[in-house]
Amino acid sequence: MAKMTKSALLQVMAEKTGMSKKDVASFLEKMVELAYKEVKTNGEFVVPGMGKMVKVNRKARDGRNPATGEAIKIPAKTVVKFRVAKAAKEAVL
């Protein structure tokens, strides 16, 4: 089976919840907006049973250009990681 597309996800969720596809799309959009806002302000956003998005600060480090082998400086930056919940790991085993 190929990966699930957004339209396929909306279709399945609409069928399982009895909501319209438009309502499901709106709900998911609002949840994503909330997740981004919470990660930006509080550093994490938890989706119970699935995992959490976490803001992580990476230190500056030395690296290499893979094409030329030249040493380069990689600046410090902030990234978002998703940590999978234990329940989700156990569910797919």
Automatic annotation (TrEMBL):
InterPro entries, per the entry: Hist_DNA-bd (IPR000119), IHF-like_DNA-bd_dom_sf (IPR010992)
One biological process term in Gene Ontology: DNA replication
Any one of the GO CC terms: cytosol
Subcellular location: Virion
Pfam family, one: Bac_DNA_binding
Main location: virion
Transmembrane segments: none
Source superkingdom: Bacteria
A GO term, aspect molecular function: DNA binding
Protein keywords: DNA replication, DNA-binding, Late protein
Family named by the database record: Belongs to the bacterial histone-like protein family.
Oligomeric form and interacting partners: Homodimer.
Role: DNA-binding protein that plays a critical role in nucleoid compaction, genome replication and DNA replication and transcription. Binds to both ssDNA and dsDNA with a binding site covering about 15 nucleotides. Displays DNA-supercoiling activity only when associated with the viral DNA topoisomerase 2.
Entry protein name: Viral histone-like protein
Organism of derivation: Candidatus Kuenenbacteria bacterium GW2011_GWA2_42_15
